[in-house]
Amino acid sequence: MTQISSISLRRVLDSRGNPTVEADVLTESGGFGRAAAPSGASTGEYEAIELPPKEAIANAREHAVPRLVDTVYAGDQRAVDGALRAADGTENFSEIGANSAVAISMAAAKAAADVLGAPLYQHLGGAFRGENFPVPLGNVIGGGEHAKDATDIQEFLAAPVGAPSVSEAVFANAKVHGAAGDILDERGIGAGKGDEGAWAPPVSDAEAFEIMDEAVSRVSEEVGFEIKFGLDVAASEMYDEGAYQYSDGEKSPDEQIEYIAELVEEYDLAYVEDPLDENDYEAFAELTEQVGDQTLICGDDLFVTNVSRLQDGIDQGAANSILIKPNQIGSLSDTVDAIELAVRNGYETIISHRSGETEDTTIAHLAVATDAGFIKTGTVAGERTAKLNELIRIAEDAV
Ligand SMILES: O=C(O)[C@@H](CO)OP(=O)(O)O
Ligand SMILES: [Mg+2]
What we know:
The protein is of the alpha/beta class. It contains 14 helices and 16 strands.
């Protein structure tokens, strides 16, 4: 029933106005799935390779499509992803492109769910999936590679850890975004928005901390539950010549560890992603040792959703959580392998969008299917709210 009968690939727009790969998968019984690849700006050095979409599509048509059509069952996700790996023949999808691979992988899962008449989260999670819903981490203020002339730290993220439901959490994050906008106004600071819809004000990181702190406490008081905040430092982007380059000077790796540990204390941060360079497992381990019992130290560029990099981190005690981005590794099976390895070792999982996104909502389903503790997918902007609104629908459907 789920045997793949055709695959179409096309270029569509992403939220930055760049082309990306979209895949349609059809099965012999009429099942249909459509998915599109997202795209990063602050990409990790060890990510699977995104090819220019035209090239990715041409190569996937030549190598992958013939291996899948009339042969592989969309319901057998491991077979779909195994065929993609075999068609590509490299470690990092540099032949067919991780963008083509992940689009086909996700579209096949959706086609299978369609045939089975089950929502995607149910198909991926199975009968015994957990009962929890992820806490949404929402980007409220940001800079780094996502906006010029804004903060050095890439993302200041609202974390509504005390929210009684997914929908209350989602609305609270949007309110924090609104409150941060009000505070910027009150301070006479004009701000545009970055790639993910977060405010991108021309302020120092120190001022952004003040604004975030004020915004989460205003909204927390209004909604009556605890809202903390966290960061994506995206430190690899500022690491150069052995030091972290901030607008107001540089910090050595030891100073960076001390600075982040102080921020965790001062602001009671719920979450700190990529506080250190992607090659410095040792520094990650040191910071985790210092503050890992108070906060999540998360590896994004450090782990790139890759089981062997995650295993290295587990062996060394580097970080206590992992960011999960299907396009960093190129297939849903590889993604789920990373999630399972993390869970077996007590690492929290955070399913994440990319800064370049589409209306695709697969990550909302993946987060629920795998019982992830968190999902990072913005606060406002259509390609972000697509996931958040899907999460609200899933929560309603799954009761
Ligand atoms: O660093 C990140 O976590 C992501 C998403 O916020 O950014 P990008 O997609 O640019 O890598
Ligand atoms: Mg990141």
